[in-house]
Every structure is written in C-alpha cells, then in structure tokens.
Specification:
heterodimer, A: mainly beta, six-stranded mixed β-sheet
C-alpha cells in the first residue's frame, strides 16, 4: 500500500540548515518529490529525485534518498525567512507515474 | 505562461446548497487531478482524468461528489448537497500525461478553492 509520513513541525534559525524527513512504504516508487506550500497558495514543485539516485543537489537544496530504508530527506542550506512554509514529500509509482501520494506535510518556521 | 486556473478562490455557502468548483488546466496537459486539503486528513486525491476520461475516482468521498471533464481545457467538481464537513481547500492540478513518468510529468497545482460550508 501507499503511505508517506513526515514529521509535523520544524523550527530553525535563519542562516542554519533545515532537514525535513520523510518515509514511504512502497518500494516500487519511481520518482520522489518535494513540494512547497506557502500560506494561502497552492503547491509548488521544489525538486525531485529518481529512485535509482542517492543524492541530488540543486542550489541550496539537497535531497538524500535511502532506498533500503525508504527514507527521503530535504536539506535547505542557509535557511531564510522566505523558506517558512509547509513542505510535502510525494511519491509516484510505476505505470500510474503521474498519480502522486503525498505526506501530511512538515510546517517549517524560520526564526530571525 | 498561465498556470492552472481555479475558480472561485473563496466560497462560503450554506449547508444543503450545491457547490461547483471550476478548473482550467495548463494548455497541452492531458492529465487533471482534483485534490482536497484539510487539517485532519492532509492532501487527498479525489479523482484524476487522463485525456478527459476519469481514470481513478476511488478518492471521491461519496455520491454527493461528482467531477466532469467535458473537454481538455475545463473540469468541474460538484458537491450536492454540501455539508459542513466538506469545508476544505480544493486543489486542481494538471500534468503532461499518464505515460510520461518523471520530471517531465511534473504536476502543477492551482491556487486552490477555499470552501466553507456553514
């Protein structure tokens, strides 16, 4: 079955690194995604990783994937107040690759 | 480049009334999704269409909910009759298509329709 879980809340100081964690259960996941939702807005794709990769870096964002443990993380370097938002991880599976299953979201609060 | 367009952005309605939410996907996208977001249940996929055909409606909560996609550029989600527990943010999203797997098949979300049923 499909189940994606995330911690609910993360507080971090401006300038520090943030690490948001996610676990998933379906080993046939093809792509894993991180989406960001700012207050009152829809979800925006931040980054993604293919399931045969271990790491992907995109400017301040680093995605780590441990396929054995079905664990995904998003690291945000030099966190800024504009990074305060809800972050969702999501997985897409197999032939229905465009059907995403989302985690519950992690609310990140960046303190000055 | 217009994204996914939803209307209305906000709606407050009385219990028992019919609610119709509208969505215009990104031009050229063949898949369309309706999601519902609540504090209690997070993001739930209600239904998705590919080439205007409903592929999976297993997330539709009950018969009071219905969705249509009469053409490639328009979809509706209807709730009749509405109930207070339907209060949520309803997101429409679109992507290139079912058989394109990977980053080229990114799902793009609209801004959401914020529904309050009193």
């Amino acid at each position: 079955g499909e189940d994606v879980e995330q911690s609910l809340f993360l507080s971090v100081r401006e300038g520090d690194s943030s690490v948001i964690n996610c676990t998933y259960t379906d080993s046939s996941s093809t792509y894993l995604y991180w989406y960001k939702q700012e207050p009152g807005a829809g979800l925006q794709l931040l980054t993604y990783i293919f399931s045969n990769m271990d790491m992907k870096q995109d400017q301040r964002l680093t995605v780590l994937l441990n396929k054995k443990d079905k664990h995904l993380s998003l690291r945000i370097a030099d966190t800024q107040t504009g990074d305060s938002a809800i972050y969702f991880c999501a997985e897409s599976i197999g032939a229905a690759g465009n059907k995403l299953t989302f985690g519950g979201g992690t609310r990140v609060l960046v303190k000055p | 480049d217009a994204g996914v367009i939803q209307s209305p952005r906000h709606e407050v309605t009385e219990m028992g009334q019919e609610v119709t939410l509208r969505c215009k996907p990104i031009s050229g996208h063949n898949s369309l999704f309706w999601y519902r977001q609540t504090m209690m249940r997070g993001l739930e996929l209600l239904i998705y269409f590919n080439n205007n055909v409903p592929i999976d409606d297993s997330g539709m909560p009950e018969d009071r909910f219905s969705a249509k996609m009469p053409n490639a550029s328009f979809s509706t989600l209807k709730i009749q009759p509405s109930e207070p527990r339907d209060s949520a943010v309803y997101f429409c999203a679109s992507s290139l298509g079912q058989m394109v797997i990977g980053p080229g098949n990114t799902i793009y979300f609209g801004e959401g329709s914020w529904l309050t049923v009193v």
